[in-house]
Amino acid sequence: KDDDIEEGDLPEHKRPPAPIDFSKIDPGKPESILKLTKKGKTLMMFVTVSGNPTEKETEEITSLWQGSLFNANYDVQRFIVGSNRAIFMLRDGGYAWEIKDFLISQERCADVTLEGQVYPGKGADGSEKGRNKTKPEKAKKKKDADKNSKSSQEDNRATKQREDL
Predict the structure, then answer these.
(1) Quick one: which of 80, 76, 90, 2 has its CA closest to 42?
(2) How do residues 62-106 score in pLDDT, each as one tens digit?
(3) Which residue, 45, 55, 51, is CA-closest to 128?
């Protein structure tokens, strides 16, 4: 049954991996290894739009980027996942770093996340880091939750007298 299907038509997970030419790998650049290992595989990257855009603005801005990439013969699909976030899906992950370089050079690109690595874009505000900004808020919420849990524990103590209504 599987013998009738040509190798190129098989689903990605059933295709044999492309052979890696180790002579092209630069030991000083770990990205070169990733480029070769991702060649021919589907890859996704997250892109954050700078400023405080609405979902419609994010749609318009990322649509322009997708159009520019399409004109440069890059097959990229785009999915909006938040008011300022989008996923760019590439059929061939070998081109991901070239696309990342294009995206981070755009005025409204805050950052690009590729293979777990965050690359700041031209639109990133140096004083405002998205990850650092969210951590203090979470810590504050946790402190508030701890205070609330302590007060609720005090309310549940048998020694505290409660007024009957």
Answers:
(1) 90
(2) 999 999 999 999 989 999 999 999 999 998 888 888 999 999 999
(3) 51
Q: Are 57 and 85 in contact (CB under 8 A)?
A: no
Torsion sign (Cα): 104, 109, 114, 118: positive
In degrees, rounded to 5, the angle at the alpha carbon of residue 122 between the alpha carbons of residues 132 and 100 is: 95
Report phi then psi at 95, rounded to 5.
-95, 0
Tell if the pTM clears 0.85, that is, is over it: no
Is the Cβ–Cβ distance between 99 and 88 less than 8 Å? Answer: yes
Q: Kindly give the residue spans of alpha helices, DSSP state H, lying in 47-161.
A: 55-71, 96-104, 130-155
Q: What's at 61, amino acid-wise?
A: I
d(CA 34, CA 14): 20
DSSP 18: P
Q: Measuring CA to CA, how many Å separate 34 from each of 19, 40, 57, 116?
A: 13, 12, 32, 12
Domains of the chain: residue spans and CATH: 40-117 (3.30.70.260)
Closest CA to 39 of 55, 24, 57: 24
